[in-house]
Every structure is written in structure tokens, then in C-alpha cells.
What we know:
- This is Putative cytoplasmic protein.
- It comes from Pseudomyxococcus hansupus.
- It holds the Pfam family AlkZ-like.
- By secondary structure, the chain is of the alpha+beta class.
- 32% of the residues lie in helices and 21% in strands.
- The chain contains 13 helices and 17 strands.
- The strands form five sheets. Strands 12, 13, 14, 15, 16 and 17 form a six-stranded mixed β-sheet that branches.
- Helix 6 (96-109) packs across helix 7.
Amino acid sequence: MFPSGARGVRAMLKDLRCIQLDPLDVIGTNADLVALARVDGIARGDVYKHLLPGHAFEHIAKERCLLPVSAFPYYRERAAQLPTWRLEERLARVPEQVLQAVLAELTETGPASAKTLKDHGAVVPLDWSGWKSTARATAMALDVLGARCQVVVCGRAPGGKVYDVPHRALPRHADAAVTQPVDPWALVERVEAAGLLSRASGAHWSSLKHVRTSDLPDTLVREGLLEEVAVSGSPRRYLAPSGFRRRDVPEPDARMRILGPLDAVLWDRELVRVAFGFDYVWEVYKPAAQRQWGWYVCPLLHRGRLVGRLEARVREGTLTVDNVWREQGVKLDDAALDETLARHAAACGATRVKRPRARVA
């Protein structure tokens, strides 16, 4: 466990390297769940409050993530090298003069959201497999400027994300120099975040797909900056942090934890199956008829094992657990689950918990 409160959240981000973001807020967002599983003395929403501004920024790691400010110079450098990185479709919709107008206004006015900045009209929204982006030119311009590292998210408000220029939001890191080439740095960071990074293709590579198929992984292994390892029961090869076998690993404690569906522990579903004997698919985007479990189902981690699954919502001051499944052959500790649910309810501002009996998976 990390220290409690803000200090613990900041130490956690430094250790994890990134926290994947997702807008769905059912029992807390994924970032909330990542933090609540590891840090005491925080509530839903505190992960953003304790990190923004000054301690984190948002950008693409595995997907959109919260990243420690120490990573900002490398992202700024990469954005300069690849000015259209993941931006082609947005740049085709937002004129350069709109980008510059939004940047100039934000520079002059200070922290602001898309709703409080000047309205520059509408754009055709992106449509990626049913996911649609904003139709507001100002909001899309902020996305582009954020990808270029010309602005950063510095907070969250009821009106949405709050943006500012790096010199105000990240004053100590806005102009810091990089000390090594970007791709080697990024690969080591991704391996540290994943723990074990499969050399097979997959979502865990995301923006580093070009690195996976290059000579760089083998080069870093030869140089001793990474290690290549095998995992019993898997035909795959994995990249591991240098010296990972010598690192201190805390013994699993008695606390049961609710894992966010995009927690780094779960990034590599095949590794989760091999290491834990646990088959997990996040079914939130599947049609209801195709789901085996439910819409927003989170794994339960207890004493170093994935022991079950939980589907719950916060409704009218109550943490309502719709379903609990225990893994076959596992005796689910009901007392530990009740303690976890009570703790999570309090973190979500709920005053009571309603739960059914656990079913066998």
C-alpha cells in the first residue's frame, strides 16, 4: 500500500507510470478504482483532485491516461517529431486558424473549459466503430492542442475538463529537456507499467506498435535495460524490467480489492488467464445478448488471487450490488467482501450497501 491521501495518490502514479482513463462512472471511474484499490484516505474524484494540476497530465500511453509530469518533456518531444500523431482526422476538420485562436485565448485567459472559451462553430464528429467525438470546433481544437502538448488538462469541473498552457499548469516541466531518445524511454516505461509486456501484438502496445516490430526491444535486452522472460503455461515471450527478480514485492494482505476494468493488472488478458486462471473480458461495449456476465463487471482481488466478479452501481445513496460471482473452487470470504463494499460505499458517498449472495462462476 501507498501512503494515504494526496501523497499516496502521487506516489502511486509515479510507481504505476500511467493510469488509464475512461469516462464511465458507475462505482467511480476506472482511475478512481485504480486509486481506491491502492490508497487509503481518498474518495471518488480525489485521484483527479490530488494530481491536477501540477502532478500529472493527460496523453496517450496505452490509451488515454493520466501520466506523471516527469513524462511531459518526452511527450512534447514526440509531438514535435510526429506532429500528426493520431490527429489526421481531427486536423482535417479543424482549421489551423481555429487552433491558433483557441490557443491564444487560453494563453490570455488562464484555465478554461471548452464551454467557457469562444465558440468556433461546429465540426463533423469523428465516428470510430460507433464512438462519436465532439461536434464542437473549440472542443476538438483543445484535443488537437493537447495531443501537440501545447495545452494540458489541469483539472475537471462539472462543465468538463479544464485546460491551461503548460507553463502555468506544469511550470517546472514545461521546458525541461529530455535526457534520452524518446522510443527507448517509452518502451522501458511501458514495460514498467505492464510488469510483464508480451512481445505478441495486442492493445497493451497501442501507440508503441512501431516499436514492437523494430530492433529496439532486442537492443534494450542486450544492453541490460530490459529482460526477456518466459512464463510457465504460456508460449509467449515477455519483456520485463531490468532486475525485476530482485525487487521487493509486498506480501498479499487480507484486504479484498475491487479492480477497475482497465487496471494495468488486467491489460494482458492472456497473461491474466495464465497467471491467475481467470478469464476476463470487459463486456461494457458488447450487446446485452452477447454478455456472459454483465455490463460493468469488476474483478475481485484477495490474498493474491482473483477470486470473483462484482457488478454494482451507486443509486440514491446506496451501493447496490446487482451480482457477485465467485470463481469455481474458491471460497469467497464474505466478511472481507462486506468490508470492501462498506469502504467503497463510503468513498462513493453512499450510506448503505445492498448485496446478494455470491453465485458460482
